[in-house]
Specification:
The chain is α/β, with parallel strands linked by helices. 37% of the residues lie in helices and 20% in strands.
């Protein structure tokens, strides 16, 4: 299976139900049912990945397992955390871009262990204690509107972006977007990793704050607003989401910052109360094998990108206890106070 083999039309015709609704507790964005002709069992997946982007992986799983029905629920990373750790929602697999929150769920006893030939393929930095399993590497990118930058130098680094924003405040007032890190788990992960890597993050945050930065929950909305001209710059957007929007290729420019490009690992866990842990393991094996042997754009394939490749501008975030540092209550409060002082004006 290669992701490119599945056209958007194929995805949409295979998806029978996709509805937006709110649960009594955690907030659900949509539930999509992938039926089969003669279902024997059903696996329930909760995920932060947009349905359209993830559909090829689900459909490929069903090609190999034609009698397994899949129920796919999309939520934000913070709501996934609430669903698993607070409400004990009965899901078999939980998939999130917020790898620090996934690690915390495992550390706090909300997951169960799993090991297989497929999980053994992962390097040490790609799995944690046989509880958290990565299957993609995805870049934090800067997405801009080429029309908004007409006549200006396209920024290639964070310092370039600072310079162009400072020198053109009238053009970019109210036209810069980024995550609201107070509510976005992925946004918080990217921001804390940026801050650990370079002081440039705080200078950029102050410049964005002076321009009245627009705050977002998720990458897809930022990308849409850049394409529509509502904002000119989206900072720390998931590059995989932007690359997947072929329909917007002439309206957006995707930049992997040349000073450093942060790579997060999208991860899967099996909740402690999973009703079908055997199916969960089968699905995780499918994700890992797809990533290692069959992945294509918009993902970075694991075999071609490791710490030994010499790609010095790439800064992969590794799984491990270090991810828990900024989830400490006092450290999180202190970081958010600094962020609010810089961005909220």
């Amino acid at each position: 299976m290669r992701f490119a083999l599945f056209s958007l039309l194929g995805m949409l015709t295979a998806i029978i139900t996709s509805v937006s609704l709110a649960a009594e507790g955690f907030e659900i964005e949509s539930i999509t049912l992938y039926p089969v002709d003669q279902p024997i069992r059903q696996i329930k997946i909760i995920s932060t990945a947009d349905t359209e982007l993830f559909a090829p992986l689900v459909l490929a799983f069903q090609q190999k397992n034609p009698q397994i029905e899949v129920e796919y629920t999309t939520v934000s990373s913070s709501q996934l955390m609430q669903a698993i750790s607070v409400e004990g929602a009965p899901f078999d697999v939980a998939i999130s871009s917020a790898m620090d929150l996934q690690t915390k769920l495992a550390n706090d006893g909300f997951t169960q262990s799993y090991r297989s030939d497929a999980t053994d393929m992962l390097p040490e930095w790609g799995r944690w204690r046989d509880h958290v399993f990565s299957f993609t590497q995805e870049a934090a990118a800067i997405v801009i509107s080429p029309d908004a930058f007409d006549g200006l130098q396209i920024p290639r680094t964070r310092q370039d972006l600072i310079t162009v924003l400072r020198n053109n405040p009238a053009r970019f007032k109210g036209k810069v977007g980024t995550y609201d890190v107070r509510s976005s788990g992925l946004g918080y992960l990217f921001a804390t990793q940026d801050a650990r890597t370079s002081e440039t993050f705080w200078r950029l945050s102050e410049v964005m704050g002076s321009l009245g930065t627009q705050l977002y929950c998720c990458s897809s909305e930022m990308i849409e607003d850049v394409a529509a001209g509502k904002i000119a710059v989206a900072y720390n957007v998931l590059g995989s989401y932007a690359l997947a929007r072929k329909d917007l290729a002439d309206k957006i420019t995707i930049i992997s910052p040349a000073d450093f490009t942060t790579l997060m690992l999208r991860t899967a866990i099996i909740p402690a109360n999973a009703q079908n842990p055997d199916l969960a393991g089968k699905f995780i094996d499918h994700l890992i094998v797809s990533a290692w042997t069959e992945a294509g754009e918009p993902y970075y394939p694991f075999p071609e990108l490791t710490s030994d490749t010499g790609a010095t501008t790439l800064r992969p975030i590794r799984l491990g206890p270090g991810l828990l540092v900024f989830l400490d209550g006092l450290k999180r409060q202190r970081f958010l106070q600094e962020w609010e002082a810089a961005v909220l004006r």
